[in-house]
Amino acid sequence: MLQKVEGIVIRTTDYGEANKILTLYTRELGKIGVMARGAKRPKSRLSSISQLFTHGHYVFQRTSGLGVLNQGEMVMSFRDLRADIFLTAYAAYIVELLDRLTEQHEINPYLYELLYQTLHYIDEGQDYEILTRIFEVKMLRVAGIGLHVDGCAHCGASEGEFSFSIKEGGFLCHRCWHVDERNLKIQPNTAKLLRLFYHFDLNRLGSISVKPETKEELKTILEAYFDEYSGLHLKSKRFLSQLDKMKME
Length: 249
Prior knowledge:
CATH class of the largest domain: Mainly Alpha
CATH architecture of the largest domain: Up-down Bundle
Largest sheet: 5 strands, mixed, barrel
Distance between the termini: 54 Å
């Protein structure tokens, strides 16, 4: 049975001398795996549509196991994203995070749209660091990890000065800081952005301008939160950390 899907390549694995196994995240079927026979050959008609991050329409033979890719039509290659090592590294982290937090054939059109919009905005030159933080916040729900950002996680207070508590899973007001002595002090703008990222629709994204110190706080909080609750150890994350260190030197 032939099946046509709209999808994005989120992982490629070499198989034999000439073949690739593609992991596609699709609008219609969620995450699927297909064999692209001959895709490693430069002249193969499947070569260009089998590259990481490629967005396209794919036709494959659907079986009980791994599908077999018959043909594909590229919609977008995200060429600018591929041309910059930092953008490529951040995009690789985004697709690996998605891959590790999703199961085969779990249909989620919202998540597909989130992935597409994130890669599209990065390719257009929007702030890739902030887009990555937004993606991480959105993926917390997919991972089943709660995040209390609408007030104090302990007493429920909605106003005042907040810190962030890994232990309590969200904000603590100044009256409840004693609940977690290791709470992370954050700027009001950081709290505001975390709340915004958790609730807003990425399609409504306008221009992004965030101070470096706010970016660093967001990164510190989300890294610590994922480390504590997700159990993930991503190769792309280690590489990204190395690149960020190089950028700072």
